[in-house]
Design brief:
The complex is a heterodimer. Chain A contains 13 helices and 15 strands. By secondary structure, chain A is an alpha/beta fold. Chain A folds into 2 domains: about 110 residues, Aspartate Aminotransferase, domain 1; about 260 residues, Aspartate Aminotransferase, domain 2, CATH 3.40.640.10. In chain A, the strands form 4 sheets. Chain A has a 7-stranded mixed sheet with strand order 2-8-7-6-5-3-4, sandwiched between helices. Chain A has a 4-stranded antiparallel sheet with strand order 11-12-15-14, covered by helices on one side. In chain A, strand 11 and strand 12 form a beta hairpin. In chain A, helix 5 packs parallel to helix 11, helix 6 packs across helix 7 and helix 11 packs across helix 13. The longest helix of chain A is centred in the C-terminal third of the chain and has 38 residues. Chain B is of the alpha/beta class. Chain B folds into 2 domains: about 260 residues, Aspartate Aminotransferase, domain 2 (3-Layer(aba) Sandwich); about 120 residues, Aspartate Aminotransferase, domain 1. Chain B is about 35% helix and about 10% strand. Chain B has 14 helices and 12 strands. In chain B, helix 4 packs parallel to helix 10 and helix 5 crosses helix 6. Classes of the chains: A alpha/beta, B alpha/beta.
Chain lengths: ~450, ~475
Amino acid sequence: MYIPHTDAERQQMLDGIGVDSIQDLFKDIPQDHLFPNMDLPDGLSEMEVLDQMNLLADANNSTDELISFLGAGAYDHFVPSAVDMLLRRGDFFSAYTPYQPEISQGTLQAIFEYQTLMANLTGMEISNASHYDGATAAAETVITAYYHFRKKRKSVILSPYIHPDYIQVIKTYLQALDDINIIIPETDSPEQFIKNTSSLINDDTAILIFQYPDFLGNILNFEDLINQVHENGGLTASIVYPQVLGIMKSPATMGVDFIVGEAQSLGLPLSFGGPYIGFFTTKKEFIRKISGRIVGETVDADNKRGYVLTLTAREQHIRREKATSNICSNQGLNALAVAIYLSLLGKSGFREVSNICYQKAHYLSDKISSLDGYHLVNTAPFFNEFVIECPIDASEISEKMAEIGILPGYDLGNFNSARRKQLLIAVTEKTTREDMDYFVKTLQESTNA
Amino acid sequence: MLEKTIYEISSKGRKGFRFPDLDVPSTNLPNELEREHLPLPELSELDVVRHFTNLSRLNYSIDGGFYPLGSCTMKYNPRVNEVTSRLPGFSMTHPLQPIETVQGNLLLMYLLQEWLKEITGFSAATLQPAAGAHGELVGGLIIHAYHKSRNDTKRTKILIPDSAHGTNPATSNMSGFEIVSIPTDARGNVDCKTVSDACDENTAGLMLTNPNTLGLFEEQVIEVNKIVHAAGGLVYGDGANLNALLGIVKPHDLGFDIMHINLHKTFSTPHGGGGPGSGPVVVSDFLKEFLPGPIVEIVEEGDDELPPLYGFVTPEHSIGRMKAFHGHFGILIRALTYMMIQGKNGLRSVSEHAVLNANYLMALLKGTYSLPFDRTCMHEFVLEGVWDDVPEVHALDIAKRLIDYGFHPPTNYFPLNVHEALMIEPTETESKDTLDQFAKVMLKIAAEARESPELLKEAPHHAPVKRLDEVKAARELVLCCWTPNQ
């Protein structure tokens, strides 16, 4: 079906090569192992495969069929129709990395605009063309800092309130660099983290990373810590949920050196966790130190404006073992989705979606915390996600609610067993007041019964 | 200028999207947190659709024409993949949903793991890596973790052939190893003697691409892998060129211990202008406990009434997570869709025709272009894009001139061990007609190089832009089209 050769053409081609059969092309293969048996089914028609795929998809309960308050790093925001319609253009999705800029100006300009939008949204000076996801973007800040200080600074301080998957990925990435010391202070609260961390900062600190809002939804001011790291000559990074930036100040105003994070919320479906897109923004002074693709503006031989991949001398295909990262792609099509999403929503629409999330989350947290036995755990401001302490284990509530099609949020017992009675609850513009009122009612009932 | 930027077409007060009215009471957010300026553009929906449609027209793509980019396997991206990956039952599932509510997703991932294991001959698979290079990093870290688990800490060196992708040495660096470069012999192989001489008690492993980046099957691969094993090292297989091997030979049978697979090359998922791809990793049985978690397994066996329950399991000595959540699920759906359509025989046919196409095209070109290693090739081959009688013409000029004739250029200047390399990979989805036309143009360009070399030196003449000033781009570093100071 996807192979166009007719029998006659195949024969002409074999004649052209000067062999009798296709098998003759495989004489270099160890003949004992040639054409192995594969215990796999026969091929199917498109109609049959669609049936099978529909069966698999129907075996799931999607967030459209459930009432979901799950967030914890992946958010169910509305994606305007125009985003996916444009992504389906084969001119975009069936193109490769723009190695031949003369015939890749579409991809290159779209990435250039993505870089501009992310820099303006985060308030940083520059953005790269993206990383695999928020977690790997965070890991790349550590590697950047490690090489920035020529491996001399060994201490990496992570807030314990960073998304647990991100902490794990950072550890995975650094495990072969034996001399790096990852410090994750044990504290009782995010406020306590800020107080206690001060004493850990010294001239061995390569980078300090925090999350904004943190994994429990708290929005705190890290300016003093950032200043202290800078006074000691180190660097700082913030992992940011981009939707918050529509109405709230960016950590850029606190002087942070890198703002990175997950941009799935900007125009991509949940898709069971991927593919997403890690954004990576920083100050101009680090441009030659960071990894990942970068698009720059230039002119052609006729002085006409155009775009190219630039600063490629940093990358693995040139520097080989001297490159600090092996990354050789970006999330191209997803960067395009983000650029389209932010262009569509624009200045007013993005403020609006950000405000709706904030207002709905505060409505819901007020309602739940007025129930007997439930209270809001966050003492700092929050955006669209917050923690509720329940009278019984969160796992028990989740089980009961699953029966009526509600996902009540993330069971924080998975994060820390001391928090087993806590639910991390997220709201987006898709959450209706009706859904929230129903949820509150069933929460009350689930603990009364 | 080809197309204005979104900031240039922005108009104050214009809107492109409307949300429902707020259905809850409004409260003020704390003053000290409030953002003042949000420097995003202001466009209508049509502004946006027209802008990005115009941009798409400036791209060359597989849909538009032949894309023989060596090492990239630019085969046709079937449309049904785009339909299945967007089924709401898949695309609207949250990664942290209880496993009972996502059994369809988990079964799909389980099936894909099984297909990949059967195709390659390995015992275990992880679908977590986001790309080929990400899969390589898994391989490097597994080699590191394996030796460490045996307290064999003196193994600090990785052997890498000089023809390898740049990601191999970069990965080894990230995995804490030093690199020992292995030269290619006169037949384009890594040979036993060289490997044997390079192996010692410090050898952690070998990273080998097979077929290699010259498009040649490594003739001594089994012996080479045995030598590395005998020295105590592991062999990593770079699976970039798996499109030549489906149903032809199982890499595990050749002695590889670990391999990554590029779903966006071999299994037809789109390249997307640079990503997202997906780079699953398969390993031999003795390494499965090192795989990054979580992987999908049956966590409760089924019976006459109930199907088995699929769930996530993290291997005991896992190197850890490679990314948040479970991998590029949307890409996994596309790859399994493709495999199910091909089936056992279709997969073998894919590789047979990929190899047939490459050898046919090579036969048409090798009299005119120098072929440094004149052997039967696999799915791709490498020519020299330079002639002694016109030394001023380079591979780059040939590449740019191809654009004028409506073809995407081959990969050039890689692999590094071929002078002025032109690396050509036609893939199985191209017809004899297309290959004939391409060859005709390649011969015409060779003639032009002698008659009017300036046609090549100044090419492309018929692209949206002429050659771009890359030095200016790197020197001036304009990386944003609009900044708040403007």
